Amino acid sequence: MNAYSDLRVEPITVQKPRSVPKQRLSPGKPARYGILLGPALLLLYWTVLSVTGWLDPRILPAPWTAITTAIELIREGRLQENLAISTWRAMTGLGFGVIVGVTLALLSGLSLLGGYVIDGLVQIKRGIPILALIPFMILWLGIGETMKITLIATAVFFPVYINTHNALRAIDLRHVELAETVRLTRWQFLRSVVVPGSLPGFLTGLRFGVTASWLALVVVEQLNATSGIGYMVTLARNYAQTDVMLVGLVLYALLGFGSDAIVKQLERGLLSWRKTLGR
């Protein structure tokens, strides 16, 4: 008889580890039109206060007043004409500001000598309020369109330059060493390393720059202007037309909100490879 015949092998039971519930730390799933929730709540709050009489129409007219006034201004042709001129000023200033900001950021961010020369001057100017430049801009460039566009471009320049410059200086040095090892040309280095590395910073600066262009537009269109939304608002203020002033205010808000939404959509498309909390 085998010596091992009486031995019984007991089955080994493996205890399953306790399943630890997954802790959700993300902000949640993004909604397609979730960005409209805040403005919708603001409009609802404004409507309720106007209907109940808590908001004096002499202080702030009701939302439907802005709609009816805007329709009347469109029929007269004033709204679309002033809107076209204001949009042209803002976009022209934005274009010049972006071009100059990116160019100087490249010169300053990719060269230590350029950084010593350019970045110091930019930081000095950064401490001077944009409003303090208006008298000098008028003295140098006059009161016409050149001064207005230059002031808008100046306001756009700083956020574009600073964010792009910081992104360039934050490029990993190992990527630069790898590019030197594989002997990339200057153009290949710019295309494969510099552009992908600086794109997130540039788009952040562009978002701030778009907002800055509309804010500067509000200022310049109240300086001896004869057209534009700011001129329309200033003229309405002189005649105490609060409904027209409200239309101008709502237009500025919609233009800023819409421009920022366009840049954010562009950012999602160009940076689709990044996984962030907002995705």
TrEMBL record:
Domain ABC transmembrane type-1: 83-263
Pfam families registered for this protein in UniProt: BPD_transp_1
Compartments where located: Cell membrane
Ligase as UniProt keyword: no
Transmembrane keyword on record: yes
PROSITE patterns registered for this protein in UniProt: ABC_TM1 (PS50928)
Sequence intervals crossing the membrane: 33-55, 94-118, 127-143, 149-168, 189-208, 245-263
Major location category of this protein: membrane
Assigned keywords, A-Z: Cell membrane, Membrane, Transmembrane, Transmembrane helix, Transport
Lipid bilayer topology: Multi-pass membrane protein
Family from the record: Belongs to the binding-protein-dependent transport system permease family.
The protein's name: ABC transporter permease
Species in which this protein is naturally found: Sphingomonas natans
